[in-house]
Specification:
6 helices, mainly alpha
Amino acid sequence: MRTLWAYVAGPGTAFVVILLLEAALQLVFAMPSDWSAADPAALDRAMRAIPIIAFVGLLVAYMIGSFAGGMTAALVVDGRSNRPSVVTGIALTIAGAVSVFTMYHPTWFRVASLLTYLPFSYLGCLAARGRKARQ
């Protein structure tokens, strides 16, 4: 049962952390006032108007969320397996691919974000194992 929870807790933690960091980014980099999620053309224009530094911040949010998810998954199974952390990274990569290919994102961001989730989830796993080893 504990292993099952790791497969839920890892992606769940990652998604919550990413959503919270995205909300914080929206406070700093507000979307243009004329955008609407219901209007694909307006959403496309709004995404193209976002400054590059906001995309960098979003990429950092993905790194932090992936790390937190991978670490949580590994801590739930007491570091016995890296599989829940890897599955967390794969789930995030799939969700990220859906996101970056359904609306405008710069090409560099698409590539960077899709190459971020799995390595940072695994780094979270390694950090959890290191934490367990020191206890």
